[in-house]
Write a structure and sequence with these properties.
alpha+beta; four-stranded mixed beta sheet
């Protein structure tokens, strides 16, 4: 059982909340000159998901921090490579398994070597591959360059969604092993290429041992969270608790005590060096935003219970299919389940924790509508009926 040394620094619950907001880019917002790539490197991972309501989650993450950055700008920032003119362009990012399927800064490629080795050491998906299928996919990529699963011979066998074809199973296995890398999404399809061709040489062969990988990821998670418990920090890149325990003492994170937290915590020492100041963002958050990845952490820091209900039967949903929490003044004040009908953003269900959330919700809805090309907002339902008229009025 990991315990906090007696000399641990003490933080109030409010200090911990503001440290977390700054670490995630919502207070003392990140340098806008760094743009989307700066957000990615600051967070260390941006989660991908197939659901698209206002936009896909990997677009919503930089929007929430930077404001109305163009959606094409977001995609180009992730996937457009850099070239010195003498060699092919290399990506700034790659896709791999972190917290979930995530976009990761390409310089972090070496630090996922421990996971690639783990995947190679055990079978996956219980899919059998005939002899030669794996090698055939690698050979085709080598000969033809970057390809989607469809271009490799088809992604499915014709059955249910999980009924992958041999080529799809093979290329996904090659991705997990690190022989193949996803460096782009084209029409939401993964584009695969050989890692030796896509990943810069200076990081491709930097295969660190497991301990160094884990130490780096624990440190990165601590920096991205600002302050967190063992479970918070391990969950950021889906590490096991015992993996965290093995390296936290050498990670550079420092133990702290947080008012109201009943578990040990650690903080990024740089986060403790100065008091978080500046303007708070008012914005809608993707349910897959790393600020609210871990439900217990969200409840502990914000006193806000959040659950994605997209996979909950419709009759059992409380807040809606893709309810997006409202962040304003450094607090979570409500949520909205949005949809789009032509050029109208529809707030199918709005939940407001306090009347003070009316104006911030109206502001967030107007900005989100403009960002996705909608020219009006329609509110269908508010959980507190007495706030419907003030919200509609605030929307103007």
């Amino acid at each position: 059982m990991t315990t906090v040394p007696p000399a641990a620094a003490e933080l109030s619950a409010d200090e911990a909340r503001r440290i977390a907001l700054r670490a995630q880019g919502f207070l003392d917002a990140p340098d806008r000159r760094g743009g989307v790539r700066g957000v990615l490197r600051h967070l260390g991972a941006v989660q991908l998901d197939t659901i698209s309501v206002l936009a896909r989650s990997h677009e919503l993450i930089p929007y929430a921090r930077l404001g109305a950055v163009g959606r094409k700008t977001v995609e180009d920032a992730y996937w457009t490579g850099a070239s010195d003119g003498a060699s092919p362009a290399r990506p700034h990012a790659f896709e791999y398994w972190s917290h979930a399927a995530c976009i990761l800064p390409v310089e972090e490629w070496p630090h996922f070597a421990f996971r690639r080795r783990a995947y190679r050491a055990r079978p996956h998906w219980y899919h059998d591959l005939p002899d030669g299928a794996y090698d055939a996919v690698v050979k085709q990529l080598r000969a033809e360059g970057p390809l989607t699963a469809t271009e490799l011979g088809g992604a499915k066998n014709g059955g249910e969604w999980w009924d992958w074809s041999e080529s799809k199973v093979a290329v996904e296995r090659a991705l997990m092993y690190g022989e193949v890398v996803c460096t782009e999404r084209r029409g939401w399809k993964r584009v695969y290429d050989l890692a030796e061709r896509a990943i810069p040489n200076e990081v491709l062969h930097d295969e660190l041992d497991d301990r160094e990988c884990l130490r780096r990821l624990v440190r990165l998670a601590g920096q991205a969270l600002g302050v967190g418990t063992r479970a918070d920090i391990a969950d950021y890149h889906r590490l096991k608790g015992e993996q965290f325990d093995a390296v936290v003492a050498d990670s550079g994170l420092v133990p702290v005590r947080v008012e109201g937290w009943d578990k040990a915590a650690w903080a990024d020492p740089e986060a403790l060096a100065s008091e978080p100041r500046g303007r708070h963002r008012t914005t809608l958050l993707s349910p897959f935003d790393s600020l609210i990845w871990e439900r217990a952490r969200t409840e502990r820091i914000f006193g806000f219970t959040h659950r994605l209900e997209a996979y909950v039967p419709k009759t059992k949903r409380v807040h809606g299919y893709f309810a997006m929490p409202l962040l304003s003044g450094g607090k979570l004040l409500g949520r909205v389940d949005p949809a789009r009908e032509g050029t109208t953003l529809v707030a199918r269900q709005v939940s407001l924790d306090t009347p003070k959330a009316v104006r911030p919700m109206a502001q967030a809805l107007r900005e989100a509508a403009e960002w996705v090309g909608c020219d009006s907002v329609r509110v269908e339902r508010v959980d507190r009926p007495e706030l419907m008229a003030p919200l509609v009025a605030a929307l103007g």
